[in-house]
Write a structure and sequence with these properties.
The chain has 151 residues and is mostly helical. Helix 1 (2-24) runs parallel beside helix 3 and helix 3 packs antiparallel against helix 5. It contains five helices and no strands. It has helices at 2-24, 33-63, 70-99, 103-110, 120-147. It has one domain (2-147).
Length: 151
């Protein structure tokens, strides 16, 4: 579980850094929302995919003696996802509450989900958690197919 924890922390921190860079570049504004979407979907997905692949490779080499079944890879990915959800959500919460509090409103407005009676921060965090779960489960199912090794 050492590799899963390590890579969940690394992926969470990289996602937090990405959000900060996007904010510094001015991508968290209504005018630059489309650019933010493209940047976040490419770099954010790359961070996630590369992080999971590196975690699975480390897990295979260090914990499984260079041999790993699909099932072992799936469970390593699932555990990483379970660790990633609270860690990354906490860092995103810190970001949207203390660093860029207007961004959830921009996100909600641009996605047609904003109403003055609705909490934009809650909407953004919900979408973020659901996306993390989906990416984590899909990655946990797919990446071990390519990284498994048997005798």
């Amino acid at each position: 579980m050492k590799a899963e924890t390590k890579w969940a922390i690394i992926i969470s921190i990289l996602a937090f850094v990405l959000f900060n860079i996007e904010n510094m570049l001015g991508l968290h504004t209504p005018e630059n929302y489309k650019t933010w979407t493209r940047v976040d979907m490419t770099i954010g997905v790359a961070i996630f995919v590369v992080g999971y692949i590196l975690m699975l490779r480390e897990k295979r080499e260090r914990d499984f003696g260079s041999l790993m079944t699909w099932k072992q890879g799936f469970w390593a990915g699932a555990i990483t996802t379970l660790l990633l959800i609270p860690l990354s959500t906490l860092l995103v919460y810190i970001f949207i509450v203390y660093i860029s509090p207007t961004f959830p409103v921009v996100f909600a407005e641009k996605n047609g989900m904003y109403d003055y009676n609705v909490d934009a921060t809650g909407i953004f965090l919900t979408v973020y958690v659901i996306t993390t779960i989906l990416f984590g489960l899909v990655g946990s199912l797919i990446y071990p197919i390519f990284l498994k090794k048997s005798k």
